[in-house]
Amino acid sequence: MFVNNRILIGKTEDKRELFILPEMANRHGLITGASGSGKTITLKVMAESFADAGVPVFLADVKGDLAGTAFAGEINEKIQKRLDNLGIEDFKAQNYPVRFWDLYGEKGHHLRATIESVGSDVLSIILGLSEAQEGNLAIAFAIAKDEELPLNTVADLRAVLQFISENRSDYNAKYGQITPQSIGAIQRSLLQLQNQGADKFFGQPMLEIEDFFQTKDGRGVINILDSVKLFQSSDLYAAFLLWILNELFNKSPEVGDLDKPKLVFFFDEAHLLFNNMPSYRLKMITQIVKLIRSRGIGLYFISQAPTDIPGDILAQLGNRVQHALRAYTPADQKTVRAAADAFRTNQSFNTEQAILELGTGEALISFQNEKGAPEIVERATILPPQSRMGTITTEERNHIIAASPFVTKYDAVARPGQSNTISAPSKPFDPSQAQAEALAKYSIGTSFKKDEPKQTTVKQTASKPATKSTAKRGKSTAEKAGERFVTNAAGVAGREASKGISKGIGSFFKNLFK
């Protein structure tokens, strides 16, 4: 609840209020606890309270039970009993302004990004590349930029990789060593990514991150990414949220200390982000976490235990809620001790023992005070959410999507309740056909050796959106790569035909046709 310009999260047994100060909300936070201990309810209460404070929210719904935020809750006997025990009299059930998003475009606005916008760094994480493979991918991006080859889709990137692999000798001196082994590994990883549905995500129209920063009637809009299907590919889920985080960091200006955040970002199942992450990548994420608060963004990680979060990042999380943990093994006991040691000691109870005794809906809480220092840990009961708990029907979801101002901006197919003026795609996307077209080559007659296949004209793939470079990038990646291939091949043919000409003249023509 948002009460007296404070974000009320819970109350102690003696009815003392525990709240987040809006001006300290961008000092980041952490919600931890075992499965079924109440983490999702705490996340929901926080998201509602930030929205009531006029702060937009982004969160991922991995189980489908956060969608009910769009509808008013019900004050049943169980909820009323908790309210009475907490001494809360002004509680009211209400709905919240919600926007649904979905990487697959099935349960929300279709959320997309171009390969170019994701960048080689994040894409390397998505693909799980080694350092050497990552270097080759960075070279591919650099060549695509210099040759003005758009990178919108996975097919575009695979075409560029094919091209530079076949012509690597022309680029090694300028960009560094390009190895067929690394290019092959990247191609295999891209194929696996396509099999996970990546073609649904990479493309246009691309998300404008500013669309997350919306308010309605003075309340922040809660952006819910439906992740039930996405979460089945856990690596893609983690990398996708990292991309959003990176976009927020890169496109949000410095604003200094504000009276409340511009946006609060909840990263559920945060341990997936840090699993097997190399140290040089972890440094990049740590830097983002440290600096993004000066851009008005508050980050709240949700996981089972504080030990899931690397120490340098954990040190940046000032507002903490710890739900119950179980300790059946020595390793579990070590985790509980680490969780207890993260709090300022309260002399009235044993923190480690309290973590083991907490019931569902109870938590240990420590938020930052007005000086930025963590408060002494308190044992508390979390408030109930004001919106509906649980899933919603397809009809209810489609009604919310149809009422969104973004329905014609991101969605290609009309849903029940939406305007039929939304244009449907001319035909389903076929990744194998797109790849075949992207890798096709142009025929240049007898310039090739006998064992070299002739090229055929390729069809134009999706072009980049209208930008200042549209005029330069009017042709598709496949066409430009094909033309570059033809030019190089013509240079080879010219050199073969001019063996009797002096070396200097031959070098001149080589550079001319390159």
Overall description:
The protein has 514 residues and is of the alpha/beta class. The protein has 19 helices and 15 strands. It has helices spanning 39-52, 77-86, 115-127, 131-146, 154-166, 172-175, 180-195, 198-201, 234-251, 271-274, 279-291, 311-314, 330-341, 351-357, 394-402, 407-410, 431-439, 477-497, 503-513, and strands at 2-3, 6-12, 17-20, 29-32, 57-61, 98-102, 109-110, 215-216, 219-220, 222-226, 263-267, 297-303, 319-322, 362-366, 378-382. Strands 1, 2, 3, 4, 5, 6, 7, 10, 11, 12, 13, 14 and 15 form a 13-stranded mixed beta sheet that branches. It has a two-stranded antiparallel sheet with strand order 8-9. A hairpin with a 2-residue loop joins strand 1 and strand 2 (6-12). The longest helix is centred in the C-terminal third of the chain and has 21 residues, at 477-497. The radius of gyration is 27 Å and the shape is globular.
